[in-house]
Specification:
244 residues; mainly alpha; Multidrug-efflux Transporter Regulator, Chain: A, Domain 2; 3 domains; two-stranded antiparallel ribbon; disordered N terminus
Amino acid sequence: MATETERSTLTVDELAARAGVTVRTVRFYSSRGLIPPPVIGPRRVGHYGPGHLSRLALIEELQHRGMTLAAIERYLERLPPDLSARELAIHRALVASWAPDSPEDAAREELERRAGRALTEEDIDRLAAMGALARADRPDTYRLDPALLRLCVELLDVPIAQETILAARTVLLEHTREAARKLTRMLRDEVSPPYGGDASAPEQIAAVKSLSAHMEPLVVQALITAFQRSLKEELRAAFRAEAE
């Protein structure tokens, strides 16, 4: 697998275009430490890679969730410093999962620009099967799920059968939905006493939303950390059992 340095091939202009921000924004985030410095190549030209792109996407998602720049800085400071581009994409997908779905229509050219690569028909079929896009009524037009697209594009290069990826997606959806259901009940119960247990009271609904907004970053990080540790332990145990 190529290292981050080897894959850092984007200039600041290319990075900004891929991320949908201005060059000035990239440099501002870099000056605040929100993204790591570029790899300096020949002629002192800075080059960026997938990690920078994924971090910019995460920052954008956190902004869409209403977080201030100071709150985003605190959020990023709590992340492990060695997260890969794929792990950052998972963070972004989980953050976006708290927001209502907002699909977007895009032509083939825009789809490939967002994906950062040319896509074959087989690639598009796989992305559709993973739920990252759907074919729209017009030819070469697609309805995208922005929260999933980058992550699913990364999965195109993972040497795992599509059936395994889809089965894993089903498992994750089932368990995360159950976790979300239980957390929602906990939040509702936390704020219900002052309103006599009336879950439909506007005041209670507003209180749940307010508490949820404060809890979201913490819950997302807790989910990722717990899952990563559990997965490592299960894989370690599985391979140890096979070795024995």
